């Protein structure tokens, strides 16, 4: 297992807990949660971050099925980027992959990415998600 900062672990736990429950609605049971772990070549970090911010903003603004594209990096290793992705369902994820903004992100950052791991997550407390998002300023 790669070393992960405690700040990232705390955020990931809080957000993962905020999206799942044993007593979920039918809509929440279809939700897709994924954690992307990306290592960026240091010489491309600033450019990569700018492209990622643009893609994440477009995804949230333009795609109703994209609930969250939440990028972050490890404090001690800024080239180690993590993205918490939450989609309404698998179809929303598949649709996201076909969008022009995602295709542009993927093609322009390909040379910048040293490694990529995608992990599907199992939500544990979906009912708390509504409270979490209401608390955000």
What does this structure look like?
The chain has 137 residues and is of the alpha+beta class. The chain has a domain at 30-120: 2-Layer Sandwich (Alpha-Beta Plaits). It contains 6 helices and 4 strands, in the order H-H-E-H-E-E-H-H-E-H. It has a 4-stranded antiparallel beta sheet with strand order 2-3-1-4, sandwiched between helices. The chain is globular and about 40 Å long. The relative contact order is 0.27. The model is unreliable at 5-24 (pLDDT under 50).
Q: Which key features would you list for this structure?
A:
4 strands; 25% strand; Alpha-Beta Plaits; 45% helix; alpha+beta; single chain; four-stranded antiparallel sheet; 137 residues
Topology:
Layout: H1 6-17, H2 26-30, E1 32-40, H3 45-62, E2 66-73, E3 80-87, H4 90-97, H5 100-109, E4 113-121, H6 127-135
Antiparallel strand pairs: 1-3, 1-4, 2-3
Helix pairs in contact: 3-5
Short description, anyone?
The chain has 137 residues and is an alpha+beta fold.
Largest sheet: 4 strands, antiparallel
- Percent strand: 15-25%
Widest beta sheet: strand line-up: 2-3-1-4
Cα-to-Cα separation, first versus last residue: 34 Å
Order of helices and strands: HHEHEEHHEH
By CATH, the architecture of the domain at 30-120 is named 2-Layer Sandwich
Question: Which structural class do you get from the secondary structure elements?
Answer: alpha+beta
Tell me, briefly, the overall form.
globular
**Count of strand segments:** 4
User: What is the CATH topology classification name of the domain at 30-120?
Assistant: Alpha-Beta Plaits
**Total number of helices:** 6
Mean pLDDT level: 83
Proportion of residues in helical segments? 40-55%
Q: How large is the radius of gyration?
A: 15 Å
Q: Which CATH C-level class of the domain at 30-120 is it?
A: Alpha Beta
Uncertain regions spanning at least 5 consecutive residues:
5-24
